[in-house]
Structure formats: C-alpha cells, structure tokens
Design brief:
With 203 residues, the chain is α/β, with parallel strands linked by helices. The protein is 26% helix and 21% strand. It contains five helices and nine strands. The strands form two sheets. The protein has a six-stranded mixed beta sheet with strand order 2-1-3-7-8-9, with helices on both faces. The chain has a three-stranded antiparallel beta sheet with strand order 4-5-6. Helix 1 runs parallel beside helix 4 and helix 4 crosses helix 5.
Amino acid sequence: PPRGSSPPGGRLLAIGDDRTLAGGEALRRAEAEARALAARWPSTQVALRLGAVADDLTEDDFVGRDVIHIASHARFSEGLGNRATVRFAAGVPLTATGVARRRLDADLMFLSCCEADRPLAAGGVGSFARACLEAGARTVIASSQRVDDEAAAELARRFYDHWLSGQSKAAALRTAQLDVRSARPEWAHPYYWATYRLIGDPR
C-alpha cells in the first residue's frame, strides 16, 4: 500500500526536555509527555531522549524514524542566510536548512513546542516545520505561536489517542483540539488549542 495508508506506528523517536532556555521558565510536562508516548510503543521500536540526554541530538538522529515527537522549549533565530536555527533546551542548535538536507523517513513529526511553524525570513525555508517537510517528513504538526505547557501535553495525548485508534491525522488533530477546548473552562480560549496546524498529508 502507499506510504501513510497503513496503520500508524513504526519506529518512534520521542524527545522531552523540561529544562529552561535562558530567560525562560522550566517546563513541567514535556518529559512526561514524551515518556507517556514512548510507553505506547513496543520498546524495541522506541528511542526516548529525556532532559540532558537530548543535548547530543543532531539532524542525523531524525533519520530512520517513522514518528518523531519533540516536546521541549524551542527558540528560533533567523540568523543570516541559511542559518535559521532552532535550539531545544540546552542542546546543540539545529539549523532548519541542516534538517532540510537530511532524508527523513517520518510519516509524522509532531513538534510540541512554541513557534515551530513560525515564518522565518532568512534562508530558503519558510519555517522549521516546513524544513522537516522538505527533508521528507510526510506530515508535520506544529504551532506558529507560543503554547501552554499543560494544554500542549493534553492535546498531544488526545491526538495520539485518536490517531492510534484509526482516525486520519487531520481528523485526530481536530478532535484533539475540540477535546482540549472542552476539557476545562479556561482552555476554551483559542490560545490553548487553536494554534496547532497540520502541514502535509492529512491521512
């Protein structure tokens, strides 16, 4: 069958890092989010990178994974020329163009961090999320704005509930957004659920 039409699963890279970036606050849910997701996969199919273990992450670590989930602080800098970069917590900065040069096998990349789809003026890629598409990821889910730590973890959990149960990625994301919107009165505001979007194949 064509890629993306088979049941979800395969090889998972789950990254979670609660540590702060300079001038920011530490997260409380990112590592738990990644750990909970990894627990849903067969252990032989999972690479789990938490906290300081993610410091050595490079673009090459994305290769050969069917699902890539990143829950972390992220800071995006436009830089000069093709040096638009993303820094996940204290790890080595990744350039958007560096990721775009790799050949990813991911059916899904879920970027559970702030501004992963924020437009970048520098270089030839529109955003870090779009760089992942250029590198071969079939579908990317990301936010163009800042996100709430707890609501983001809940949205991710609900998304995987629905996707792994057989919904398409687009339907699973929409259902998860509605779930979060109705989960708490304060989460009814679009800030908590509406900034995520799916880029690429909706299946």
